[in-house]
Design goal:
The protein has 208 residues and is an all-alpha fold. The protein is built from nine helices and no strands.
Length: 208
């Protein structure tokens, strides 16, 4: 393996570095974007029960905000629970945009690695072919061993760049799609909170 890296030349270093960074990002995003961590099961129901009991203090709302991305969105709505439906909904949507940005953390870096790695491989190919033609110019084509170094550099860097780019691109698309689904689901949960709180508030006022 070390011999292959050496044969690929100095361009193998940024390609290998990109593969390490991409793997670290993939592992971190798999951990962070687990549905149960982003949207803890039953959270909305627990919040509504606490609201009905009048047990939602500012301390509890702060704990809800720090507990999960969905909790942050719900806490934004609860902070404006005495305001109009439109104000509460706007607070939820604004916080949702910030949460979505946080869920997309490191994905731009992963996308950059997916785009740059094959270009580094292509650059290695060009440099390898330049080396081959330089040897041909100097000693001709009589000795294949003189050409082997440049040809191997061209092939190895190309293969390495593509090998890093393909999985990085796959995971980049996968995580983008997952973030989109999570954001849509969280917004739906938060809008349920808005509608149910205002519906119950209207019912309480009519009963009074």
């Amino acid at each position: 393996m070390l011999e292959i890296v050496r044969a690929g030349g100095w361009l193998m270093l940024p390609i290998l570095l990109g593969s390490v960074v991409a793997m670290a990002i993939v592992m971190e995003r798999f951990w962070t974007l687990q549905t149960r961590r982003v949207m803890p099961p039953g959270l909305l129901e627990r919040v509504l029960r606490a609201y009905e009991r009048g047990a939602l203090s500012e301390k509890q709302i702060a704990a809800l905000r720090a507990g999960s991305p969905l909790g942050r969105i719900l806490a934004a709505g609860l902070s404006y629970r005495n305001a109009s439906r439109e104000v509460m909904k706007e607070a939820v949507e604004d916080t949702g945009r910030h949460v979505a940005h946080g869920l997309e953390r490191y994905l731009n870096t992963l996308g950059t690695i997916a785009a740059v790695s094959p270009l580094l491989g292509l650059l290695g190919t060009v440099l390898g072919m330049i080396q081959v033609f330089s040897v041909i110019t100097s000693v001709g084509v009589g000795d294949p061993t003189e050409l082997a170094s440049g040809i191997s550099q061209a092939l190895i860097t190309t293969a390495a760049g593509i090998s890093v780019a393909v999985p990085a691109l796959i995971f980049h698309r996968y995580f983008r799609g997952k973030v989109t689904r999570l954001v849509v689901d969280m917004e739906a949960e938060a809008l349920k909170l808005v509608e149910m709180m205002h519906a119950r508030g209207a019912g309480a006022r009519e009963a009074a």
